[in-house]
Amino acid sequence: MALPTRPVSSWVQGTDFPSQLFETGSDDYELYEEDGEFVLTVEMPGFDVEEIDVSWADGMLHIAGEHEDEHRGERRTYHRRFRFPKEIEDDEITAEYTNGVLEVRLPVLAGATTRGKTIEVDG
Fold first, then answer.
1. 2 in Cβ contact with 14 (< 8 Å)
2. Structure pTM?
3. pLDDT of 68-89, one tens digit each?
4. Is there a domain that residue 121 lies in?
5. Domain range holding 83?
6. CATH number at residue 81
7. Is residue 44 part of a domain?
């Protein structure tokens, strides 16, 4: 039996739930809004710029990458989609890949408001 590599949350200790069930995924990206645009940075070390595809469709940003290391016989892929809460000026989206970090800037459409609704929290 293998020992867990991460500490188990105290609220699941003593239960039969596997700790992996509650993980939220990798922390390979950061997303924030600044000066009228969303800025998304994604850590993608080891990829070449030609191996990365960034596309925008129907209010969703798609990022994909595929890297093949023939010397080691390894193949790495990356796929992630991001949906944004405001309308984006899609003709103004830019992407730059530097030192293993992809930075995508998505300008918010002038006058755009947040889509969705507020959910009341009972307590």
1. no
2. 0.70
3. 888 888 888 999 999 988 889 9
4. no
5. 27-107
6. 2.60.40.790
7. yes
